[in-house]
Amino acid sequence: MKLALLGFGTVGQGICEILLKKKDYLKKKYDFDFNIVAVADFVNGNVYNPDGLDIPFILEQAKAKKKFTKDVVDWDNIKLIKECNADVLCELTFTDLNTGGPAIEHCKAALESGKHVVTSNKGPAALKYPEMKKLADKNGVQFLIEGTVCAGTPVINLIDGPLAGCVISKICGILNGTTNYMLSEMEKGMDYDEVLKVAQELGYAEADPTGDVEGYDARGKVTILANIVMGASLEISDVSCEGITKITSDDIKKAKEQNARWKLIGTVEKKDGKVTGSVAPEMIDLSHPLAGVMGATNALTFSTDLLGDVTIVGPGAGKIETGFSILTDILSIHRSK
Length: 337
Ligand code: HSE
Fold this sequence. Notes:
With 337 residues, the chain is α/β, with parallel strands linked by helices. It is 39% helix and 22% strand. It is globular, with a radius of gyration of 20 Å.
C-alpha cells in the first residue's frame, strides 16, 4: 500500500514510528506491505518519491525541526495529493473546527482522484461527513475517521463492527484527553497554566489549546458521534458547550471534600426521535465509574437496546495512541482489498 501523509506533526510522526517498528510484524501477520511515497508539512516542506521515501531520515529532520532536503518537490499540497501515486491519503494536519480548512480541500482532492482517506482531523468529519462519504462512495474508495474520537481507542469502528445491530440511545463520557489530564494534575496541586503547558508538550493538546479548554474539541466529537452513530444532522453550533476555564483549584479542592471530582462530560442523546448534544463540566461522585478515569484517558458509555450499557475506556490523545488510529483504518482498507 502506498501512503501519503499530509501533516507531519505529532500524529504523522506517530504513525511513521509505528510502521517502522512493526514493519516485519505487519508483513508476517497481515501480509501488509507499505511505502510512504509523499509527506507534506508546512514547517518541513513537501517531499515525494514514487518508489518510497527514506522515512528514518525524514523523521530525523522533522524532529530536528529542519527543512526536508531529500526528494523535495515544489508542488503545493493539492497538486501533491492529486499527482502522487499513493493509494491512501492520511490527512493529519491541524484541526480547524470553524471552517474545516484546509483539511476539507485535501480530503476532497484525494477522494476525487480515487484515493482512500484516513484522518484524525475532526474538521472534515464534524463539518462535512455526509459530503465526504458520498464523494468516497462515488469514487469507490473509503473515508475513515477512527482517530477523530478518542484517538485509537475503537469507538467509530466499534459501532460499525462489534456493536452493529444494537440501537444506541445515549453516548456519554469523557471525550477530551487534555482537559481530563489537566483536571487530574490540578487535583495533585499543579496550576492551570503549568499543566496546560505539559499537556501541549506531551502532544495531547490541539495546535490551539483553546479548542481543548473551552470544550470545542469535545463538541466536535459530540457532533461526529451524533451524526455518525445516531444518524442525526447536527451542526457544531447545535451542541451546547462549556469548557473548564472557569474551574479553579479551589473548585477542585471543594469537590474533593465532597467525595467528588470535576470531569468534562460530552453527551449525545436520542429522545422521541430527536438527537441532542452537550458538553459541560460536571461534578461527579467518586463512586461513579467515570470518576476514576484519570489523565489523558477517555471513557465512553454507549446505552444500547440489546446489551444495556457498554463502556469503553482507553487513550484519548497522544502521538502513538493517535498514530494507532491511522494504522487501524489503514489495515481495515488492506483487509477490504
Ligand atoms: N486535543 C485532543 C484531546 C486530541 O486532548 O483529546 C485528541 O482529539
